[in-house]
Each structure stands twice: as structure tokens, then as C-alpha cells.
Amino acid sequence: MGLLSGKTALITGAARGIGKAIALKFASEGANIAFTDLVIDENGKATEAELLALGVKAKGYASNAAMFGETEELVKKVHEDFGSIDILVNNAGITKDGLMMRMTETQWDAVIAVNLKSAFNFIHACTPIMVRQKSGSIINMASVVGVHGNAGQSNYAASKAGLIALAKSIGQEVGSRGIRANAIAPGFIDTAMTQALPDNIRAEWIKKIPLRRGGTVEDIANVATFLASDMSSYVTGQVIQVDGGMNM
User: Fold this and answer.
1) Which residue positions are annotated as catalytic (predicted)?
2) Residues 192-223, buried b or exposed e (16+ Cβ, 10 A)?
3) Which residues lie below 8 Å from residue 32, measured CB to CB, with a gap of 6+?
4) How far apart, in whole angstroms, are the C-alpha atoms of residue 89 and residue 245?
5) I need a labelling partner for 51 at 20 to 30 A (CA). Which of 100, 208, 222, 241 fits?
6) Cα–Cα distance between 205 and 215 in angstroms, integer?
7) Is 104 in a helix, a strand, or coil?
8) Each residue of 185-195: pLDDT tens digit?
9) CA–CA distance, 220 with 6 (Å, rounded to integer)
């Protein structure tokens, strides 16, 4: 029996990267997995196949997480297909970096819509289900820049800070119904995006990290599994920074 046996997890933006790692870890602990991405392309189909190979029920859904009505319909479909939604991971996210003086309204709106409004959309749709179940774990994927800010990323930092405040507020609203809400704030994680950075930039980042390495997607997935499971049954409204000590 895994830590998440019998539970269904809905994970947004999980065809690749951190979201995929969380989906695979959850499935290895026995959870059935519904995951979304803007389109279910070869990556999405491959992720679905990897999840199914772990012996759980799994399905990928094409969805624009930033669209309220589309999200409401998607959550209904997931609930029909799986019978419950016990864990929600708001992982969908994008970056459109730039200094404030040069940032366009389009850059700002796009990041806020995908990173923050999508979490509102999914929490709004999933909490009635969790209230009826009298249990649930909501996990918002924030960032250390949502805690400390970062020059050139005001839109991204604002969206991630919003996810932290959203988790704390929702935790207060639905805690009496047996639902928990927390946030994970990753630091410098080795993904395709960070691996593409020049070596000198990567080296500068590593110098700032007491553990002297970048994090892995599995590091994030392990913390998400703790928050999704009954091991964290008395943990809500918290922000766990997974950053190797970069921001102590």
C-alpha cells in the first residue's frame, strides 16, 4: 500500500518538468492521476503511458487552465471519470520576464492569468467536491521569488506571491471541512529551462546555495507527496521552500 493509495490527484501543467515528476511520484505511491496541459501532444501521451505502466488509472486532458468556464467543465469531467478528487496540485505556469519599465501589459496579464488565475479556477471548481468528501489537499506551486522577489520578474514574482497568499486564505476558509492548503516554493531546480542557461550563470546560482547544487524535480515531488499524504494531516497554510538553503 502506497502513501496515496485510493486517492485521485489532479495536477495542472503536468506533461513535463516538475508537474510530470509529481505525477509519477504520486502514481508510484498508488494515486490515480488526472493531469492537464494546454495540449496533450507527444509529451502528454508519453506521460500518460508512463503513469499507466505504474498500474494506476491515468488520463491527460487538454485544457487552458486560465479559462474559468473551461476549467469548470474539465473538473466535472475528471470527477465523472475518476469518482473523486482528493489532491489538487496547481502547477501550471509560464514566465515572460522583463524589467518593469519595459514590460508590456500583455506580458503581465499572461503570467498572472496562467500562474495565478488558473489556481483560482481550479480551487473554485474542486473545493465543492472536497467539501462533500470532507477531505482534500490543495498544493500551490509557488517559488522562492514569490517570497523574496526578483528583479526582472515582477509579473512572475507577483503571481507566485499570490499563490502563497491564496493557499493561506483557502486553508483558513476550508480547514474546518477537513481540507488543507499549502504551497511549495522551489528554488534553483535543474530542468530543461535552467539547464539551457550559460555555465557562468548556473555557477553563480550554485554559489548562493549552501548545499552547492541545484534541486531536482524529484526533490519537489517528494515534498509534494508529503503534503498530499496523511503524513502532513496537521499541516496547512504553510510555505515549504525547497531551495537547498538559498533563502534562509
Assistant:
1) 156 (proton acceptor)
2) eeeeeeeeeebeeeeeebeeeebbebebbbeb
3) 7, 8, 9, 56, 57, 58, 82
4) 24
5) 241
6) 11
7) coil
8) 999 998 877 77
9) 22
CA nearest to 145, candidates 108, 107, 192, 97: 97
> Are the beta carbons of 17 and 196 closer than 8 angstroms?
no
Residue 79 three-state SS? helix
241 DSSP β-pair partners: 185
Q: Is 61 tagged catalytic?
A: no
Closest by CA to 72, choosing from 11, 4, 124, 139, is 124
Contacts of 102 (CB under 8 A, 6+ apart): none
Q: Given 156, 232, 236, 244, which residue is catalytic?
A: 156
| Residue 131, all three cell numbers | 467539501
Q: Extract the C-alpha cell encoding 150.
A: 526578483
**Rounded to an integer, what is the distance from CA 197 to the centroid of its chain?**
23
What is the rounded distance in angstroms from the CA atom of residue 67 to the CA atom of residue 117? 8
Which ranges in the chain belong to alpha helices (H)? 17-28, 42-52, 68-82, 105-111, 118-133, 145-148, 154-174, 192-195, 199-207, 217-228
Binding residues for NADP(+): 13-16, 91, 156-160, 189
